[in-house]
Amino acid sequence: MSISLSEYVAFYGEEHFDLSMEALRFFTQFGSSEFAIRPFLARELSRTLAIMTTWADDENEHVRRLASEGSRPRLPWSFQIKPLIEDPTPVAPILDRLKNDPSLYVRKSVANHLNDITRDHPEWVLDRLGGWPIDNPHTAWIAKHALRSLIKKGDPKALTVVGASGKPLVEVTSFGVSPSKIALGQRLQIDGRIASTSDASQRLVVDYAVHYVKKNGAANRKVFKLKQVDLAPYASWDISISQVVRDFTTRKHHAGHHRVELLVNGESIAESGFDLSI
Q: 207, 238, 242, 213: which is closest to 225 by C-alpha?
């Protein structure tokens, strides 16, 4: 019901700005007003962001989340806020106020908001995070998840922000995919081991990538997050991944050879693969 009321405000509240803002602030505590706030941002960006900045200091976590979530430039299932895609500077006061929020609910929104911005302004995000207290565990959590897209690409600045050790000093003692041939709907197992060749500890971001075969025979590389590992000198770490290969609404599989890469700090260090039949 509260979402319906928020939508009513979005449609009919244009002539009553202050009352509409207070209504959305109230309704979001019972069902998010993130979509309802978007028309106000589209019509009066500066005025709406000024109100939302005050929400970032609210005692209620749902209101604080609305400040971040509602102002995301590329909020899923809603229209984009083009001026914020072109220049995210106007939302900086909101994000700064929420940089170490105690609520995981809020921190997830801030991380997703910053990850949105990395698509268009990665340096802006890296510069902003560079001035945040990354030694604070809440802030560190936001940074790690906000930079996930850049980390998957092996961006050296993003890796530095999360404390990764740069070029990995490791060797792969084993890496393989089994079975080598599967049918759609069957389970795939990825196993391996990496060993440190360094006499110092290393913080490593370990991911893996699957090159999914497309209908035209080309491949689409999809990177999956695995784990951040603190690897002691000359220590080893075992990799074990199990997943069912099945169709989703966002991905339809096609027959053919699928390459699988092991990535450490964004660098491909081993490769295997499997043949998929449909």
A: 207
Q: Express each pLDDT in 118-129 by its tens digit.
A: 999 999 999 999
* Beta carbons within 10 angstroms of residue 144's beta carbon: 18
DSSP code per residue over 15-51 = T-HHHHHHHHHHHTTTS--TTTTHHHHHH-HHHHHHH
Q: Report CA-CA distances (Å) from 22 to 69, 132, 159, 180, 204.
A: 17, 30, 41, 59, 46
Compute the CA torsion angle 130, 132, 133, 135 (nearest 10 deg): -50
Topology of 2-161 in CATH?
1.25.40
Across the range 28-55, mean pLDDT stands at: 96
Task: Average the pLDDT over each of 67-76, 104-113, 211-220 and give the range with the smallest value.
Answer: 211-220
Cα–Cα distance list, 136 to 60, 101, 123, 141, 203 (Å):
21, 10, 22, 9, 18
For residue 31, the model assigns a pLDDT of: 87
Between CA 92 and CA 7 the distance in angstroms is 27
Measured CA to CA, the distance from residue 42 to residue 79 in angstroms comes to 9
Which residues, at least 6 apart from 95, have a Cβ–Cβ distance to it below 8 Å?
Answer: 68, 110, 113, 114, 128
Tokens of 51: 């109100």
**How high is the pLDDT of residue 14?**
87
What architecture does CATH give domain 170-277? Sandwich (2.60)
Domain ranges of the chain: 2-161, 170-277
Confidence of residue 2 (pLDDT cuts 50, 70, 90): low
CA dihedral 190, 192, 198, 201 (to 10 degrees): 60
How many CB atoms lie under 10 A from the CB of residue 20? Answer: 23
Confirm if 267 and 167 have CB atoms less than 8 A apart. Answer: yes
